[in-house]
Write a structure and sequence with these properties.
Layout (H helix, E strand, L loop, with lengths): L1 E7 L2 E8 L2 E6 L12 E2 L4 E2 L4 E3 L6 E6 L3 H7 L8 E6 L3 E2 L4 E4 L6 E3 L1 E7 L15 E8 L2 E2 H7 L3 H4 L5 E8 L8 E6 L2 E7 L7 H9 L9 E3 L7 E3 L4 E6 L3 E9 L3
Parallel strand pairs: 7-18, 9-15, 10-21
Antiparallel strand pairs: 1-2, 1-6, 1-15, 2-3, 3-4, 3-5, 7-8, 11-14, 11-19, 12-13, 12-18, 13-15, 16-17, 16-20, 20-21
Amino acid sequence: MKIVRFTFRSTISYGVIEGGEVQPYSGTPFGLPPSAGFSPCGSTLPLKEVKLLAPCQPSKLVCLGLNYKPHGDELKMKLPDLPLLFLKPSTAVIGPDEYIVLPPGSERVDYECELGVVIGMTARNVKEADSSDYVLGYTCVNDVTDRIAQAQDGQWTRAKSHDTFAPIGPCIDTSVNPSNLKIETHVNGNVKQSDYTSSLIFPVPYLVSFISHIMTLLPGDVIATGTPAGIGPIKGGDIVEVIIENIGVLRNTVVEIFE
């Protein structure tokens, strides 16, 4: 099932993509099994006639740094012994085909393709063996980063938290196996990052358990699992695509705003 959140004639709804159409659903996919209240309603709509939104509204994005060894190598940073966590605020979230806005005066802003884990039910102190019970599905994330601010600050909040710095989408795939998915970034049609999620240092079940022992994960929260090697800058006019096998393409255009 590929769950989407969309707007049609000024109404925001959840639905499921079926071929080139969207089947609207009543209720919400979060907080309970889909069969318990998330059900089809109304007629299908052509996908091209709806506007896809970010497929969830997270209270927070819990993100991983240095979770692919080659990425640590390219940054010349020691790999962590435990997951290296940072947060992105909900105000950074945008959906498919929305603009990534470069902050005025920024010198280098980078793309970072990541597998996003979308939490389905409130998760606290979850055992690793039970982690899949708390996951609704998986999505694409672009962890946009101000690389200069990251180097200046040492900690990463300012570098990661600008409005529009967390594109998510286009859907939440509830059936995909996250253990060995091909993940890529394309910029203007050129491949910039390419790897498989089997290269993750800390895999998804471990991350869900580890993070839930630190903070409560709420329905709709997203864990961004880290980026492969190949990071690089983006500029105004670039079209950035995060592509994950069996999930889809998250496409955003970069724009500059001058003071």
